[in-house]
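A sample follows:
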Amino acid sequence: MNNRVVAAFDFDGTITTSDSFRAFMLDAAGSTRFALAVLRCLPWLAGIAPGWAERGRTKARFLYAALGPVRREALEAAAQRFVDTGLPALLRPEMLARIREHQALGHEVVLVSASPSIYLRKWAPSMGIGTVLASELEWRDGVYTGRLAGRNCWGPEKVARLRAWWGKDAPATLYAYGDSRGDREMAQLANHAWIRGEAALPPLAAEGGFGAVA
């Protein structure tokens, strides 16, 4: 009998109060280089909302505009510094508590985010999260190329990543937590979905469903 239960959490806006990628880039590049990168990438940044600029490519382009061909070890160090000093202030206590609730019930918690894995994989172990499905930066000879390796982990790609991760061992129950359009497909896949702003976070019932709506 399949009793596997998975809880998939978006990161930005769901676990955090604001965009962690923006905060990371400010921390890594500094305010002057960050502002110059915004100016260089303004046409693409402005094109995300109307849909003619691709989110993943714009994100990768912005990182390159701010930091250039940064070496991996330097960005890894910046990511660790951000996780240690900048990220904690962005975390929502009630969502950290929800993660721990799932873990206490024996559920597998997975992080599914469009943000770069370079800092998410440093943060996740602090919460006992062993799986991070996120956007990956492309490296060549240890240097950032200005591109993503694979697709941006957003929208339909979140579902594709989850299915590839669990393979033939699909969970009997899937919870999904999100806050935006980029989480819609993941929410539709789930047995129990919660989107920030649509309802209060319900109590988690031990039998596998949200206490109020299972």
